[in-house]
Amino acid sequence: MPEIYSELSAPTAVTHSLRSYFTSRRGTNAPNLIVAKTTLLQIFTLKTNATEILTSAMTSAASDRHVPSASADDEQGDFAADVALQRSTFEDVTRLVLLAEYPLHGQVSGMVAVQRDGAADALLLSFREAKASVLVWDADAHAIQTVSLHYYERQEFYSPVVVAESLPTELVVDPGNRAALLRFAGDVLAVWPVWQSGEEDLLDDGDTKMTDGGGGGGVLEGEEDDDWDPTADEKPVPKEVVMKDADTVEPKKEKAKKEDQIFHPSFVIKAGLLDDSISHVISLRFLHEYREPTLGILYSPKRTWTGWLEERKDTVCYIVITLDLEQRACTPIMSVQNLPYDLFKVVAVNAPIGGSLLLGTNQLIHVDQAGKTTGVAVNPYYRKATNFGGLADQSDLCLELEGAAVVELENENGDMLLIMKDGTAVIIGFRMDGRNVSGVRISKIANHAGPLVGGVVTSATLLGDKRLFISCSEGDARILRWKRMGAKKLKPAAPKLSDIPEDELSDVDVEALLSDSDDDDLYGGPSSAAAADLSGAPRKDSIFPSTLPSQRIASLDHRAKGEYLFQTHDRLINLAPLTGLTLGRPVDVAPKHADVAPELEIVAACGPSNTPEDAGLVVLRQSLAPTVVGSFELPAARALWAVRTRTTKGGPTTGAEEQRRSAEEEYGRYLFVSKASESAVYRIADEFEEVRGTDFEAEGETVEAGCVADGGRVVHVVPEQVRVYDCDMQLAQIIPMVDADGEDGPAIVKAKVCDPYLVLLRVDGSVNVHKLDKNMEMAEQDVGPLKEGGYASGSIYQARKGQFSQPQPATLKQEDEGYDYILTLMNEQGALEMYDLTDLTTPLFTTSNFGSLPPLLKAGAPAETRTEDITEVLLADLGDHVTKSPYLFVRNGHDDITIYTPFFTSTGALSFLKLPNPVLATPRTSAPPDADPSFLPLTAAANIGGLATVFLPGADPAFIIATSHSLPRLHRLAGPPVRSCDAFHTASADRGFISLSSTGTIRVCHLPAASDGWSFATAFAAKKIYLNESLRGLAWYDPMRVYAATTVRRVPFSLAEDGETPPDDPAPPHIDASDLVLINPANGAWRIVDRWPFAPHEAAHVVAAPSLEVSETTHERRTLITVGTGLHRGEDASARGAVYVFEVIDVVPEPGRPETNRKLKLLVREEVKGTVSALTGVSNGYLLCAQGQKLMVRGLKEDLSLLPVAFMDVNAYVSSVRNLDGMVLLGDVVKSVQFAGFAEEPYKLAAFGKDTQAASVVAAEFLPADGGKLLFVVADARGRLLVLEYDPEHPKSLAGQRLIRRAAFNVGHEIATLTLLPRTPAGHVVLLSTRTGALATLATTAENEHRRLNVLQTQIVAGGESVGGLNHKAWRHVESEGLPVRSVLDAAVVGAWCGLGVGRRREVGVKAGMGGGGREEVRSVGGGAGVAYL
After folding, report:
1. Are 106 and 127 in contact (CB under 8 A)?
2. What is the value of pTM for the model shown?
3. Which of 541, 547, 552 is nearest to 508 (CA)?
4. 3-class SS letters over 544-612
5. pLDDT band at residue 981, thresholds of 50, 70 and 90?
6. DSSP structural state of residue 659
7. pLDDT in tens, 540-550
């Protein structure tokens, strides 16, 4: 059957980062931080706020540890915390705010910024397939625009004996902004000369376009390019020029504007043509302080390796070459020979040091502009690895520099931060003799003895003002700020913008000038100061922007010289690598509230394996499981509102009492409940007590309830009138709904309260607006034409002053100058109107095509014929404590939500951009027949668990949540349908919410909060638990509701036998050592409660919890924990392993630690030949072990021994074993997968079929399909998904001996695990986890549905624009050696249907043969369909 691939959660591991003025020109707004997460591009803005910091808190990044904390009881608990008086200070803390994100049809391999005069920077992205895209920000569309695509995939560039995928690509840019370069196919270079202001085209014919290396590039304004023509005549070039065009030239229809051009036509050149000695390029960089673009190239003309060092060493060379782009010529200016063989990276060093730094495994070498070398050895192995002289000996540091990253610290006299692969960091300093480097010195950071970050660093970017962004492949990405310990310095006067010449203003870092950090006078001088460019050209480095001209720097130099202190300001949570994934049951939910919790949750190991920093596990839930504080039944209730009022108590009070009373003012005091034809009000206390003996009138169902006058008046809206009460529910005012003649007028159908305004929408479509006056009465306002009617929905929003009338620069601090109140209305014709309530005659924004839900809403757009059935519009805030932003929510008759974000175009016009939301609502099948949709409005809440959110009630209830690190997403609420919901804040339910279910149950709940470790930055609610233990495997032990996990840590390795003294080795090799730990998640503690250590040289490879037969007579079966290990004693010792069987028993807990009532008990340890690499249970309680190159079935006897009963030779290392009803699927790292079966009478393990095409299997899993078909899903090391079928009737299968490849799909990520999920009515689903932190599913579909969705996907791809101009079909395609394989549907592309306008939706739906425009077909494959129990 056909398959469909659905990415549930995007990757979280940051691979590349870049600071750039991408969305605005320099000097107008704060810079952007652009990050790439393999196949996801995210654009952040930097926001700096003054934050209160307790002086007793540890300020170092090393002390930024995460300790699990116990949660309160589900039903009751003490919400008051012990407060210790501490001195607090305010510091400027920088945080990231996500502006936009874009999925890419390619894997990012490089990213640089190119500055443009008078415009925002351009972004140049390179991809693994030797492609590059030029992107710019379109302010009028508030989105990325692709300027050109360059691709270099001609076979002549690649060696026929080297696999192209194994060759890395390297993208670099000149610090002087004069050229960019892409290295691909080993030694092939593609060069893009940057267009400089005022210069003409480098070619004689300025009206030509160039196609790069086989068809792409140089295409402006959306023109199509032609394929490369090998028969075309090349342009003549001078003989002395070594660089040639690799492309043909053809006339251009229309010449692009000079100011819009970014690059001159690019050209391709082999590195060996730059200099005859260059071959096997290792690394290259553009260098600083040169008048022309100058490359530093590290290469190895002779090859060697560690085992051949006695014969050949010091084979690496370094050369510096200047490029003359105008003449297409080059000049070598310096070279260094006989460098250590293990050098792997070139780092360009800025002034005042200059030159370049060469990183090696055992040493660092600095090369200055004259070719003088100075270095330092960092471990004892350098003596065996190189004969290179001039290395200072600091081998006692014992540093391992493989995979290390280095970044220059601004304004620190050339000091550089070096971060090793285990996250530890040191400072590289340079000893200067005049302008020459006389020595390199490495010093440890005294205040950070442990890791600074978590694991291998993938990117390090300077953000200015002593801030760094550092990302890791498996650890969290961080913003770090450093300080220097030192004496207090006088703070120089900050320069004023008015004092800076106008021609220098574009290079000024406005954010650094406007920020006034209070700690500068304590720790040092100005926030940024750049050295002069010795080349004489103006310095235009997007990474290091100059704050002031060089002649002013000397007067601002007040640097501190003490130790470095690093502090974490913000972090992007990284869930990678998601190994050892398992399914468990939520244990933090009381049994009586199990109906509001998901049935299962995903738990996986995350964090680095070589350091405990950021290591632990992650809990993932697709549905939110609220913590229920209390509940009661009220079947007659239809809707509810929690209202806050001020208390009326007076008299003198003490300071503590005044503080308590101030907190109580924020608590909800009344709960309004609407019934079928009446209303009720309850006083909120320990118990809900109905209010009696007041002026409250129960007649009429409630339309809306709220407060004005800051809680001084309560507004109660019923269809016939509006009643206003004081704080004690005494009637203060009645506003009847009457016409001009005093008769009963149109009834109220909808209302919104926003202090001090009340907006009423009546049944005739007219709008009434009331405002609280000085007499504490609601006075009706003149609404002008709004009185005439014709409106279907509306809302009111409290905005900052001028927020919707004029653009506001992000660098300027928003002062509290009052608020604007924005009225949003939609009429019955589908037009949208927005007004400022102070002026209802002139709309702020109006458009007539709102009903068609276009991707971009612009003012004055004409109406379209095809419109959506829109039932509600709401303008409300979403966000967290870092930032809150308004969004426009549109709800249709199916309860589908469309989200728009407002923005201002380059001309200052207000527009709205549609945001992606692939989640479509479940049909209303459970709603009662008499349900009134008017009782299910969207609810905006200003603070629920620290989040400004919007709640969607109905059959598929959900919270719409956005954080500073994520765009708005729908997070479904676990449990039954919800009729109504509102924010609820009391002493026992701090910033919670109250909901009314369809069965009449009222619940007071807490939302999973960030303070409890929950993050909503991904499509799943994620809780990362920092255990400071690196986990390798994980298994859920259901009988005791605990997790068993195997840990991994690096320990020194020695060949000494037990009892012998190991030799004294200052830098010994390291191997893996393991423990088995028991993790108890009870009460949200997630603590390790027991540990079983293995032998020093024994590493655990796999852990599982199968059901095994423990009695041969009674055939009793029990769930037990099994562990497979390997004993590693060196290459000369035969590989051995062991199989352990444990059970978990109840014990008496430790005092004060109730979670320690579980303990491991060893039942069996069976030593075997070969490493045990895989374990699983098979039919009737047997254990299947992959040991060495054999597959062995063992039975647990009553004497606690494991008896082998059947085996099968595999002849390869087995990486994956799966069982399904006695059928066995095994995969190895060399051949591929085999399908076998196990039988008892007699005991037999026999092979049925195998895959004949080689694949390095990482994981394999069964995928049963309808019609009795059996499919196998295989993930290989190249990030591909292969779908095979066992079909004995197929003529090519040789009666089933060959497995038939049915489909193949390129995932684009390294796959970690495959897990078959429990079956649902929709069928079986396989869950994928990747080492980049992404989650996805693979499911089967019916043939007819697959054909329709395939046509829909084709129409969407053909009619849409791909970011970067990348080809989706080529990205997902996998070459097949045998029979042709079918394509796998991509649910992400199918889900893009939701982002189309209504007319386009119906158009593609009709072409695909779908009724109703295709909504139901898209809903069935999107939004995590088939895994609702998560």
Report:
1. yes
2. 0.89
3. 547
4. CCCCCCHHHCHHHCCCCCCCEEEEEEEEECCCCCCEEEEEECCCCCCHHHHHHCCCCEEEEEECCCCCC
5. very high
6. H
7. 333 223 333 33
